[in-house]
Design goal:
- With 362 residues, the protein is mainly alpha-helical.
- It is built from 21 helices and no strands.
- α15 packs antiparallel against α16, α18 runs antiparallel to α19 and α20 packs antiparallel against α21.
- The chain starts with a helix and ends with a helix.
Length: 362
């Protein structure tokens, strides 16, 4: 189960963990694996129950405490952040040389204690000096602590190296975005595209970023440019197909692109969600519901649940649609924009329900 969870075979890992717990409820590792898988599926409250049980059974297992520390509930309050901080500190107490725990603690405490965040980011980097995420964490903590020159020096060195390294370029792009600096991310990607037109990853990252910013025309042009270089890339095929289907543009072509992606990765939840949504745009709700339920069965997220709610509403299953939208609101990954959209749908559904009640009473 642990092996399968690590390599992404979540359904199989969950089944094995369930079987192990059924035969021996005192197996800490089985509870830890189950918690890890549930967390990746967005079922974080259930994950915390399993991880807490694992910590009770194996109180000196630093990995369990680490996982408790990095498993965050949606819209966490100060009490929840304190719980996570205690777990990460416990993991470090048990295993001071575990770099990911230092990195995670630095990220968590940075808003309230940037100096201590710098200390833990430095420790993580000293333990694993080649791990870029630790270097970027140090840059962010230094900037938060007011040491802008030091942060700039770190970032500049990584930016220079990124021009020949797709993986590093991806990490730095996400770092800038997570730090609330999308303009820096965009400038970096455009600079790399000019210097290294053969580095397709820069084109893909820029297209994805522009799509999220609703700059769809340039994003589409960039996706098509990348596809000319990598015509069999399933993620690229899905990204272009979904973006256009979501806008109800060239939907038949979008379906072809997504189906080509699914032929390469037939059980990928995000691809199934894309095809389900495309079926919905094509007026094929039964097929849409089938794909969306299959995708959600492997790990729900807010967008999938919102899509399913729309499909169910179109099929006349109003109560099921409401339940799906409400579940979407509980997901950690929900954006403010999507939250507002779903809340508006729920308000409209409530009005319709009240209207039906008045008609029935009359």
């Amino acid at each position: 189960g642990q092996f399968l969870a690590h390599y992404g075979a979540r359904s199989e890992a969950l089944k094995l963990a369930d079987r192990a717990i059924e035969s021996d409820p005192g197996q800490a590792l089985a509870h830890e694996v189950r918690g890890r898988v549930l967390a990746t599926q967005g079922r974080r409250r259930e994950a915390l129950v399993e991880l807490t049980r694992a910590a009770e059974l194996a109180p000196r297992d630093f990995i369990v405490h680490y996982r408790l520390g990095v498993t965050a509930l949606p819209h966490e309050d100060e009490a929840e952040r304190s719980r996570r901080e205690r777990s990460l500190r416990k993991a470090i107490e048990l295993q001071p040389g575990y770099a990911p725990a230092h990195n995670a603690l630095a990220a968590l405490i940075q808003p309230k204690d940037a100096e201590e965040a710098v200390k833990h980011a430095r420790t993580a980097g000293a333990i694993e000096p080649s791990e870029t995420s630790h270097v970027l964490r140090l840059a962010g903590a230094q900037r938060a602590a007011g040491r802008v020159a030091e942060a700039d020096t770190i970032e500049l060195g990584l930016v220079r190296a990124a021009q020949g390294d797709s993986r590093l370029l991806t990490e730095i792009t996400w770092y800038f975005r997570n730090e609330g600096r999308p303009a820096d991310a965009e400038a970096l990607l455009r600079r790399v595209r000019t210097a290294r037109p053969d580095l397709v990853r820069a084109t893909i990252l820029l297209a994805s970023m522009l799509a999220q910013e609703k700059k769809y025309d340039e994003a589409e042009a960039l996706y098509r440019e990348a596809l000319r270089a990598q015509p069999e890339d399933p993620s690229l095929l899905n990204s272009l197909g979904y973006m256009n289907a979501d806008r109800s543009l060239r939907v038949p072509e979008a379906l072809e692109l997504i189906e080509k992606a699914l032929r390469k990765r037939p059980d990928e939840p995000s691809f199934l969600d894309s095809r389900g949504w495309t079926y919905f745009r094509l007026g094929r709700p039964a097929e849409a519901e089938r794909d969306l339920r299959k995708a959600i069965g492997q790990g729900a997220d807010a967008v999938m649940l919102d899509h399913l709610g729309d499909v169910l509403a179109a099929r006349g299953a109003r109560e099921e649609a409401i339940a799906s939208w409400r579940e979407a609101l509980e997901q950690e990954d929900i954006s403010d924009e999507l939250r507002g959209s779903i809340e508006a749908k729920l308000a409209q559904a409530d009005k319709s329900r009240q209207g039906s009640y008045i008609v029935m009473r009359g």
